[in-house]
Design goal:
Blueprint (H helix, E strand, L loop, with lengths): L2 H30 L3 H27 L13 H30 L8 H27 L3 H26 L6 H29 L5 H14 L4 E11 L2 E10 L5 H19 L2 E8 H6 L1
Parallel strand pairs: 2-3
Antiparallel strand pairs: 1-2
Helix pairs in contact: 1-2, 1-4, 2-3, 2-5, 3-5, 3-6, 4-5, 5-6, 7-8
Length: about 290
């Protein structure tokens, strides 16, 4: 099985198991100490399993083979999953900021108990470890779905810390929990919007970074001295499968057969170096001058 696919499945399954265990512990402790804050935090932890389920489903569909209706495969389903995760992060940020404002307006105090604080700290450490592991997998395999899930884990870790700080210092600074909640929710919202924008680029198609485009143009020019004016380089990403379209200009008196050979060499060279599937459109450079 593809190692990237295995990584997606592994991250999803491990995340669901850990979130479920933490939910049960937090919920039971919350019931035991009659702590609404802990019970609410347990529900937040359980909700993280939803993003991990989305990761599993998106990876399952994304690695289905190409078919007649989807000749480039189903890789963009993973990007759709990333967008859903980003939207869930935005919802989390919104709910956290609303809850923080409510606590401030109601001068809400939390029940102090070191057992509650200890559970929250342990939970935060576990979720941060899980976040870093997911983030590493997402970086290694260039998966925005895994990166998005990592940030969802991290929001739960941060939320646990906020609740813990609120419990410890609520008798001294009743507004501290609300202030931290607003600050963190704003940060979560920023991360969610960034993930949403980055993932949307993959779906809509995008221009290569300038340094990469320059490098690609140099590679193309090295294939044949007859090539000039490399332009209209467009990238279309289907996760691992990347389609590149580009235009080159060749002498107008060159035979169709020779032009085809050069175009094929360009496609083969870019495939060899970058793993891209490239389509080259040939234009005569003299006609371009007339235009």
């Amino acid at each position: 099985m593809n190692s990237r696919k295995i990584a997606g499945y592994k991250e999803g399954i491990v995340s669901i198991l850990i979130n479920t265990i933490l939910f049960i512990i937090k919920y039971l402790v919350g019931i035991m100490f009659n702590s609404i804050a802990m019970i609410s935090e347990s529900i937040h932890t359980l909700s993280d399993s939803l993003t991990s389920i989305i990761v599993l489903i998106s990876f399952w569909i994304a690695y289905k083979p190409a078919d007649e209706e989807h000749p480039f495969g189903h890789g963009r389903v993973e990007s759709i999953g990333s967008i859903i995760i980003a939207i869930l992060l935005l919802i989390t940020a919104y709910e956290l900021i609303v809850e923080s404002i409510k606590k401030y307006l109601n001068h809400e105090l939390m029940i102090f108990n070191w057992s509650l604080v200890a559970i929250l700290i342990i939970s935060a450490i576990i979720k941060e470890i899980l976040a870093r592991w997911s983030l590493n997998l997402g970086t290694v395999y260039n998966s925005k779905a895994l990166i998005g899930d990592a940030w969802h884990h991290r929001t739960d870790a941060i939320a646990s810390i906020i609740v813990g700080i609120g419990i410890i210092f609520s008798n001294y600074y009743w507004w501290l929990d609300s202030l931290l909640g607003v600050c963190v929710s704003s940060f979560i919202g920023f991360i969610a919007i960034k993930l949403l924008i980055d993932t949307s680029k993959d779906i809509m198609g995008y221009k290569l970074p300038s340094e990469v485009e320059t490098e690609v143009k140099n590679v193309i020019s090295s294939v044949s001295k007859d090539i000039s004016d490399v332009h209209h380089i467009h990238a279309h990403k289907y996760e691992e499968h990347v389609e590149i379209t580009l235009h080159i200009r060749l002498p107008p008196n060159m035979s169709l057969s020779d032009a085809h050979k050069i175009a094929s060499k360009v496609e083969e060279e870019l495939k060899r170096l970058y793993g891209w599937n490239v389509t080259v459109h040939v234009e005569p450079y003299i006609e371009s001058k007339k235009n």
